């Protein structure tokens, strides 16, 4: 599907431009992909809420002509859970950094996935805490540098796909900002998915991760992503195997799970109806 | 007191141009704690980045744990301190907010962790600039709180803070607050002591009841109504003792460098009729305003509070004894009541006229003119029984 000619300006809040993102930051690529996905889905923007945690990624809601909620570092999925329960008709897109989702907010991440609440997490994974100046994150690959691990990280990394699968997420995918075509496709699919959907997108932070690890500028980093990912086997179990390979090795990309399971808000509505209530009616 | 600005010292090579954040990192390197668990947040990040570099370069033996949150960072620090290791950390704003559960615990478990706080406004709205609202969250936690006014003081109080925290009569966390950006990110000449002098000053960590000793112990026991109250009272008494043991620590520190600190400091207070009370980096602005008014023959002065917990109420009462009207400047608010420094001051003095001024929230500048206006107001009769002024914002509100 081509986006040539798609007028994405309608989705963006032009008075907020330019963004705070550094030139070449992958978060801008992801924002564009979200706009493209919204365009393809033709959803009423008044029914969409983009939520963000705190971080460069967390700035995403500022830039869209949708409803917006900027929360606190790590807690965005707890806010989102309340929002969705209060108004199940809303479409929730949750922009989270790797620090947001896998460090300080890891607890909320696994529980939102476990409940299979209908929302879409876009996990902007730049392997670092971008906003605070490039400190080590649980996603900083083994031996890679950050400002708090100047001689390289000695910690194993979190694999967001593994974690989401294990916690019970029903749609799990990973792609990269290199893949301009795949990003909007996976995001639209995730938004349509009735349940907890997570799309992890490997994103470049040239300012910190790139500079500290001598990975070059944004274009070099995009190519790095291209060269350090492999297309995963569609078999869900296979995918889990592959992600356990060498810590600094290639990461599998693709869709790792598409599964329909009872969704949390629906379950709640059913329970309410069964007890004579009118929740979700 | 020797400082670059007052008496030009003999040996200029001891002075380095450092930001408050770098000065704290330098103190950390010299103190050389065993464990430093931490999670990054602006404006504390310069501290942890500079210190991480020291550790990576082998200039400190500390183990830095890049924790997954402040809650975990403080928990790890408490665990390490009780096991018998010197543990320190640093945070700010939302990070301190998230840490707060364990800050209370650290005080009650008597874990002498020194915490540097780059004071910053709390969300929301989200803001990264300086104010004291984060520190005030920990006001009642039972930790010692110091608010410094320069990068030099940040360095000095980190070093003294270790002695105070680990003093056998105290054994409590010490929080050293330095205003976000105005102190954490602004550079000034800072005198750095010799490594050996700092090492000797802080001495080895000698926690009296470490978990790793020969004697089995329990931390975190349950306390029912018949014990809880008395345990709390022991904790309260320990915090009060911090004020009593401080002079010996500041005196021995003064022997090292000539800088003699007190819980609070008066400026032009000898014959002052009107005075202001303030904490933190805006002290310089306050002194400038006082100088301006003194030139016009007005008898005004300023008291800067450094030790906020335990609150030096007797010293403050002494400083303000002869004053007729006081304005207390708080860089935090207590919606629905009066702000913290105001309430503490009010409780310490008998002066009938005490005005409350809230300033600088979210990093708003406090200008000498704002202060002059407050002093002018103190000359006139009180408009309201209990007025609160919002310096640098009242004018904007009135224009609305
Ligand atoms: C409780 C708390 N701790 C720390 C911070 C400081 N902080 C803001 S953003 C951030 C990390 C951002 O990293 P990530 O989530 O990966 O997002 P990125 O900026 O890389 O997109 C941190 C530590 C905060 N805002 N709140
Ligand atoms: S610091 Fe990194 S993640 Fe943040 S905007 Fe800049 S490039 Fe992007
Ligand atoms: Mg990140």
Describe the overall structure.
The complex is a heterodimer of chains A (281) and B (400). Chain A has ten helices and eight strands. Chain A has one domain (10-274): Rossmann fold (3-Layer(aba) Sandwich), CATH 3.40.50.970. In chain A, α1 (26-41) packs across α6 (182-192), α3 packs across α4 and α4 (106-115) packs across α5 (160-167). With 281 residues, chain A is an alpha/beta fold. Chain A has helices at 26-41, 76-86, 98-104, 106-115, 160-167, 182-192, 206-212, 218-227, 236-243, 264-274; strands spanning 48-52, 67-70, 91-97, 119-125, 171-176, 196-202, 229-231, 251-258. Chain B is α/β, with parallel strands linked by helices. Chain B has two domains: 12-257, Thiamin diphosphate (ThDP)-binding fold, Pyr/PP domains (Rossmann fold, 3-Layer(aba) Sandwich); 264-399, Rossmann fold. Helix content of chain B is 41%, strand content 18%. Chain B is built from 13 helices and 15 strands. The N and C termini of chain B lie far apart (46 Å). The mean pLDDT of chain B is 95. The chains are: A alpha/beta (281), B alpha/beta (400). At the A-B interface, loops of A face α2 of B. Magnesium ion is lined by residues 55, 97-99, 126, 128-130, 137 of chain A.
The H-and-E topology of chain A, N to C, reads as HEEHEHHEHEHEHHEHEH
Largest sheet of chain A: 8 strands, mixed
Strand count of chain A? 8
> Order of strands across the widest beta sheet of chain A?
2-1-3-4-6-5-8-7
Radius of gyration of chain A: 18 Å
Oligomeric composition of the shown chains: heterodimer
DSSP summary: helix tally of chain A = 10
User: Largest protein interface?
Assistant: A-B, 21 and 20 residues
What profile does the largest beta sheet of chain B have? 6 strands, mixed
Q: Helix proportion of residues of chain B, in percent?
A: 40-55%
Average residue pLDDT of chain A? 92
Q: State Rg of chain B.
A: 21 Å
Give the CA-CA distance, first to last residue of chain A.
37 Å
CATH superfamily of the largest domain in chain B: Thiamin diphosphate (ThDP)-binding fold, Pyr/PP domains
Proportion of residues in β-strands of chain A: 15-25%
Q: Quick one: CATH superfamily of chain A?
A: Thiamin diphosphate (ThDP)-binding fold, Pyr/PP domains
Q: Looking at the structure, what is the overall shape of chain B?
A: globular
């Amino acid at each position: 599907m081509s986006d040539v000619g798609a007028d994405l300006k309608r989705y963006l809040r032009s008075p907020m431009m330019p963004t705070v993102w550094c030139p070449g930051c992958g978060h801008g690529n992801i924002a564009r992909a979200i706009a493209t996905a919204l365009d393809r889905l033709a959803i009423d923007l008044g029914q969409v809420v983009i939520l963000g945690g705190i971080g460069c990624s967390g700035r995403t809601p500022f830039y869209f002509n949708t409803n917006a909620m900027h929360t606190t570092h790590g807690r965005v999925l707890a806010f989102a859970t309340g929002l969705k329960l209060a108004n199940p008709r809303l479409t929730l897109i949750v922009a989270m950094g790797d620090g947001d989702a896998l460090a300080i907010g890891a607890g909320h991440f696994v529980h939102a996935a476990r409940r299979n609440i209908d929302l879409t997490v876009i996990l902007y994974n730049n392997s670092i805490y971008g906003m605070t100046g490039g400190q080590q994150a649980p996603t900083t690959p083994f031996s890679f540098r950050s400002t708090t691990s100047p001689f390289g990280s000695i910690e194993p990394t979190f694999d967001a796909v593994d974690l989401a699968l294990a916690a019970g997420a029903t749609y799990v995918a990973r792609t990269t900002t290199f893949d301009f075509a795949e990003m909007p496709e996976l995001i639209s699919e995730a938004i349509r998915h009735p349940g907890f959907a997570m799309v992890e997108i490997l994103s470049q932070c040239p300012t910190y991760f790139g500079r500290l690890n001598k990975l070059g500028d944004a274009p070099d980093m995009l190519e790095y992503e291209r060269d350090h990912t492999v297309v995963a086997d569609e078999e869900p179990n296979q995918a889990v195997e592959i992600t356990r390979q060498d810590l600094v090795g290639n990461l599998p990309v693709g869709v790792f799970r598409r599964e329909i399971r009872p969704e949390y808000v629906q379950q709640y509505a059913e329970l309410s109806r069964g007890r004579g209530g009118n929740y979700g009616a | 007191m020797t400082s670059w600005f007052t008496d030009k010292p003999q040996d200029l090579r001891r002075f380095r141009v450092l930001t408050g954040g770098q000065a704290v990192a330098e103190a950390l390197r010299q103190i050389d704690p065993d464990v430093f668990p931490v999670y990054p947040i602006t404006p504390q990040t310069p501290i942890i980045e500079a210190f991480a570099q020291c550790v990576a370069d082998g200039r400190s033996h500390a183990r830095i744990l890049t924790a997954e949150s402040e809650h975990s960072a403080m928990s790890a620090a408490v665990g390490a301190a009780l096991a018998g290791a010197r543990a320190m950390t640093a945070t700010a704003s939302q990070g301190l907010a998230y840490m707060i559960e364990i800050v209370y615990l650290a005080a009650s478990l008597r874990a002498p962790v020194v915490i540097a706080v780059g004071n910053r406004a709390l969300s929301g709205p989200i803001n990264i600039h300086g104010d004291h609202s984060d520190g005030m969250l920990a006001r009642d936690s039972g930790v010692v709180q110091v608010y410094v006014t320069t990068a030099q003081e940040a360095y000095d109080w980190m070093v003294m803070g270790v002695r105070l925290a680990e003093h056998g009569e105290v054994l409590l966390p010490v929080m050293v607050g330095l205003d976000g950006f105005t102190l954490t990110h602004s550079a000034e000449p800072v005198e750095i002591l010799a490594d050996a002098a700092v090492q000797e000053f802080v001495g080895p960590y000698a926690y009296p009841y470490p978990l790793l000793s020969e004697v089995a112990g329990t931390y975190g026991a349950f306390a029912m109504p018949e014990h809880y109250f008395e345990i709390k009272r022991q904790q309260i008494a320990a915090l009060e003792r911090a004020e009593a043991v401080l002079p010996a620590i500041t005196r021995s520190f003064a022997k090292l460098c000539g800088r003699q600190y007190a819980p609070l400091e008066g400026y032009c207070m000898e014959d002052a009729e009107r005075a202001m009370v303030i904490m933190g980096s805006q002290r310089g602005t306050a002194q400038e305003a006082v100088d301006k008014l003194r030139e016009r023959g007005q008898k005004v002065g300023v008291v800067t509070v450094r030790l906020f917990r335990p609150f030096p109420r007797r010293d403050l009462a002494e400083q303000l004894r002869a004053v007729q009207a006081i304005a207390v400047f708080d860089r935090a608010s207590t919606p629905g009541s009066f702000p913290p420094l105001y309430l503490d001051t009010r409780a310490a003095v008998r002066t009938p006229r005490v005005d409350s001024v809230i300033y600088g929230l979210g990093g708003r500048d406090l200008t000498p003119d704002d202060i002059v206006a407050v002093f002018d107001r103190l000359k006139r009769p009180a408009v309201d029984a209990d007025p609160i002024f919002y310096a640098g914002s009242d004018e904007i509100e009135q224009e609305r």
